[in-house]
Batch of 3 targets.
Target 1
Amino acid sequence: AKVFVSTVYGQAYEPAGGILMVHAWAGLFVFLGVARSQWLVVEGMTRFTLLATILGAVVNLLLNLVLIPPFGGLGAAFATVVSYAVSAVGTSFLLPATRRIGFMQLRAMALPVTVLARRRVSVS
């Protein structure tokens, strides 16, 4: 990320590469949240999306207040990733009706790790 940022924007912006690296992880939770929103529409639970979004916004605000003063932009990036995780995945465990999708999300996140672990075992 640092090489990308310094190549595109110049050497002066190289420290922003760390922020970009953290922000890249937000994509995982964005994609899981988009998939879940489709499931919520099918299940007739679109009101739940509002609850999840509000909770994510509150978490982001609180974490920004705590993390930005000591860590600056990197703290804001971490706050964003955590709030996306809470909003898109964490809230799936709030209601019994949404826990099923929450476990599906956890399995989706664990799949690459389990596939890599199986490959290492079979290669050995």
Target 2
Amino acid sequence: MFFNTRSIRLFLAVTFLLSAVSCSETYTRFPQADIAPEEKVQVRIHRFDQALFGLEPDQFQEGLLSIQDEFKPLLAADLSDTANVMQLYRFVTDTQVIRIYEQTEKVYPASRFMESSLSDAFTRFHYLFPTYPLPEVYTYISDLYFEMPIIIQGDQLIVGIDLYLGSDFPLYRKLGLPFYKIRWMEPESLPVDVMKALFHHHLAPEYSQKTLLDRMIDGGKLLVYLDAVFPSVADEFKISYTPEQLYWANENEQHIWAFLVSNQMLYTTDYQTITKLIQDGPFTTGFSNESPARLGIFIGWKIVLSYLNNNPGVSLEELFRNVDSQDILQNSGYKP
């Protein structure tokens, strides 16, 4: 079996009943919007990493002053103060930081990939949510500050570009991060993480989540948002599953749902139970090692997609404002 539970008899009974009434559900995703060329957003990325490390060492202070206007969010310090200048000089001459920057230049010698993918995503974001401002995008070398790969300050969005150099970059392993996290430190994850940051900054519901269902639906909202702004991006990058893990989750969707229902987990407020089903990890505790983590979020994604299918008049913004998880579940018609 793919999970361990003492209530196996009840689980089997519920599985039988659900299988008798379940149907094959085709979920509607978000097609490419018909956006006029003049309405498309063109993103220009400000490469502070290249500007900073391209300065001449013997004219470092003068160089900083010459780029300060463009990079004010990252050069807000008083550059007439020698202490501030020396702090930056020590940073750009640090051997580990140099190694990180050199790898960054190999992976991102130009900004074309980032600008193209973000231009498409920003265009769709603006089309769907026109009242929210789009930020200026900056990149910098964070010295592997993995706790905050994306920072939003006012109308500036700052990306630690050195956190997206590919899972085989050896310094990542020295951070002590588990492989299931390192696996997604890829260039393809950068635009997805940027758009996740915009969701949390502008659109994430402001309410106190209490139950497992609340957390599932909240995670599902984020994923349908990613469906909308990235209609061509593979699902595994949105939910951070390998293709094999996504296949496993889809194949076992009915059993996962039956397990949650039969064990009366949807309305639990128990922290440990909720954490096991929504936290990141190598797999979901209680299921087999082949399972992906965050199976609760995966099911939440399916519920919210079903809700949108069954309520075509509801916009994404109206969905995000609806903080009644029970209402979304009841009106989703979800039957895996």
Target 3
Amino acid sequence: MDTLNFKTIRYNSAEAEILDSFDAQTAGTDGFVRWVDIGSIADRDGIERLGEALGIHRLIVEDILNPNQMVKLDHYDDCLFLVLKMIDYDNETCSINTEHVSLVLKKGVVVSIAENSGDIFRRVREKITQARDNVLRQGADYLCYELLDTVVDHYFEVIDQLGDATDSIEEELIADPVKSTLQRIYFVKRELMYLRKSVYPLRELIGGLVNSDSALLSQEIRIYLHDVYDHLIQIVDSIETYQDILSNMLDTYLSSISNRTNDTMKILTIISTIFIPLTFLAGIYGMNFKNIPELSLPYGYLVFWVISAVIVVLMILFFHKKKWF
């Protein structure tokens, strides 16, 4: 089957148009670059027929339809196959969502397949349809670079979101740390760890493309890909920085709680110490002996309270002089 119902953008240095079908017979032979962007893997039959029309290896099709496939780069005689993880930050749940994305690069053709229905490459499509950044003058390898760069840009956006969450936790930690502060620290640390596990394979994938000897990648595109590789190194550095900040914040939180506990214990100790002599006096004059001289004094009860008040005042002055409170 030569014509398939997929949204396709066809362009060269002079024009760009969006097609409702894909003609596999002329792909890669008429001077046009074709981009087939599939927003979901739900149409399994259509993806399999597309693979047959383009001569894509059966193993590639199976990996495309498997959303649990790990990040990887496979070299074939006539194409490059890439499996990526597109990430996004959910503001409602404050968590990272992951989407399986596959890219197939052939001569004059790029196929992108996302796991879920969406338009994750809208920015790239606008560049082509609006003829921005001289993208029309570039080949299919440059389009593949643009798609990879879009994926990496999403990592930057997630890093910024997690950075804002870290700043918010820091402000809360300084103002009034509570139990929920500790939960937020652990939650952001977990998300950063997950992000780091996603970045490392992607960095290795881009590095593999830079060092690839595939004829599908020009030397100029390798320079662009090396820039993407540098961006991923920057992302890794940012992740490690935020992890260190959160570790320090965790130590600060524990120290703050410990200091708060010490302050509470200090107050309780001072109160207990003040009442020790008063308890002693009350214990003495609470004994059931008949011959306690002070019991017969006319003002014995008043004297007891005066002595107690003097003791309390002297002890408070002593503690204040020692700067215990």
